[in-house]
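Practice problem: predict the structure.
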Amino acid sequence: MNLTLYHRPYCHLCEEMSVALAPIASELDLTVTEIDIETDAELEARYGLLIPVLVCDGSELCHYRLDEPAVRQFVAAKRATRSAR
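Answer:
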């Protein structure tokens, strides 16, 4: 499962979320793609000061700070849905 972390350079909250997310991603076998919103005007307009934002399959899981329970719950629900098919 792939998570996308939208961030910008020199953002301490972005760095904190990236660091906090790493062990969870490893434990749950998740891939995290980090995207700098400053490289895309549309992303800049969409997320602006909301960053960091963690997204999976179009669903915003959290912003500003990592919400570990929300991430775990989302991943578990997605995996349960996939295995039920």
